[in-house]
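Lab notebook, bench 4. We co-purified these components, and the gel suggests they stay together. Before we commit to crystallization screens, I want a quick structural picture of the whole thing.
Request: model the full complex, all chains together.
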Amino acid sequence: MLSQGASSFSWKAMRVALRGLLGAVLAAAIAAAGVTGAAFAQEPDIQAILEAIDQQSNFTDTDFQSVATIIVQDPEKGTEKYVVTQFRRDREGKFLLLIQEPAVQRGQGYLMDEENLWFYDPESRKFSHTSLKESFEGTDARNSDFAASRLAEDYRPVGYESGVLAGFQVHIIDLEAVHSEVTDPYLRIWVEKENNLLLKVESYSLTKRLMRTAYFSNYEKRGSYVVATTMLFVDELVAGSRTLVTLSDISFEALPDSVFTKAFVERANR
Amino acid sequence: MRGVIRIAFRNTRRQMKRAVLLGGAVAFGVMVITLLNAFTSGAVANIKENLSYAMGGHIFIRGTELTETGREVDRIGDDHILRAAVDTSDPRIRSIHRRSGAQTTLIFGSRAASQWIDGVDFTAETELARGLQIREGSLDDLSDPQLLILPAPVAERLGVEVGESVLVRLVTVTGQQNVGELRVVAIIEDTAGFGIATAYTSIKYLNSLIGLAEGEYQSFNVFLHAIGDIDAVAADIYRAIQDAGAPAERPLAGVSSLEDFEAQGMEAFGAMFGVAMEVIAEEPWEGTKFSLTTLNEMMQPVVAAMSVLDGIALGIFIILLVITAVGIMNTFRMVMIERTREIGTMRAFGMQRKTVRSIFLWEAVIISLAGGIVGLALAGVIAAVVGSFTFSDAQGLEFFMDNGRITFLVTPGDLIGNLAIVLLMTVLAALLPANAAARLEPVKALGAHY
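Here is the predicted assembly.
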């Protein structure tokens, strides 16, 4: 049993402690609310960002044409160069790639017609079925890299932070594929805040291993559209393997419907 | 008849040198055609055997299912129909294997190589380990699910050794990119040849990489005791699957030309190797659609190519025989002329024309039979000698051989057919001189001077 003096001391101490504890709890709650509030106020509408990326890089009301120069660095084969003419009609899900260089492959083409991607070989004059998921001519670029962007449709955000990349303020967004037919199950993307430009994309496998990093270092703006004119794809699995794609001779002029037909591809080789 | 044969035999012995020369020409032709036929038959048999081990069976049943978006994926989820269709108590069936497979890129440092990998249940497929030729490493412990058994050419290309790990990049059945890691436990000889040797890992791990759930797989392989039963067993299984009401197809059946094979065979062949095709099903179905192919169907282009070889060999054989036949005809003309007085004497003693003709024809038969038998014997000796050598450095030809040895497979049909052709040609060649000898008038023949 405590003495009166001791009782008074312990009760007073307890009140002080309780007050201190209450104050700490309140302070923490306020701080947490402040942080949450700040976070709530700072985290952007990620879905809107993805839609913006898709919108400005998908040419829905115009056709698109360019010449792509592709430099491949392979640790075993050395350096190879491809020159490809690219035609796109995103509103109909069509594109055509015609290989101009190297000379031995001149005339080969990839024709996307809605759901089907065809490879044309002028030697055999035959079309064979291929896939967007396949790599383009064995490079680190994929056939799908030349097609329309579908980030908003194929992915959902699972993580976000703000950061800096090469001096630019960026959104760093983790994405997860919404279904099992999307080629890259996981992405981490760096998006420049001011203009929603994709600066860097890391592609991860189902086992969350980094497979490929894509860097978009140059853009050209045409009206409401932006075109990535320099893209570097780095194979993160095969040391020393990378592909540089540079676009030039960009045009948004309307293309004849016949461009996106097998007949056009065959005629282009006569 | 016996008297005629005896006389013919005696006449042949009297002119032994000539008979030996003619018989020798026949023997050479028979030896060549027998060796060629035996080589192509042996090569086809070896290819089938090697392919059956490489692919894990003689009859292959694959399943295709539809995703929610209507895309076809290579997968057997529910196999109760197959288990009911394949009677494991059938004495023709040796074993049943369930496998998955994927076309992958193996990566080691800065090197990459394309490689087909089969996922195998090593506890069930004990024969596989026994059938592999180990160059390095060991198959004593196959419990690690991330093990890799790698063909030697790929190991050399990657510069990887036993105990080291490689990355494996592949695509799931729905087309997603995935990466795993495998540890090399053994390096095996590439007995299949042509760079199509299979690498192996556990089916459990491979399924996890390609997006298959527990219990799912891609290929239901049936191994038979005898290759000759393939078509019959396949027909029984196909009928049973259809009777069970499951959709089924025979993608390679009825392929009759290389063009047909290209048109439909390669798509099915690719499907057999589980290449994830972005195919939208034109007519949707429920459950699993099964497709059945056999080793015989896959071998059709090879068999067709070998038939061409056989045809060329037959052509050469006939040319040789025609040349020999001309020689026989001339020789028998000379014999007829030399024996004119003898024929006249025999006719004067009452021998009939047809008997004279028969004696000549029997002489031809004896020469060709003797030549044929000698030719077969020579072919047998050469086949035995050549077949005893091991050609370990024969790059690209391993698939035609049995562990580096050439196999000569003689079929009774080929033997009898070739001998029959020889007999026919020599009898035809001797017919004209025989008829001429038979028509000789005894008086004129007796007075002839040559």
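Residues 2-49+302-446 of chain B form one domain. Worth comparing against the SEC data before the next meeting. DSSP finds 14 helices and twelve strands in chain B.
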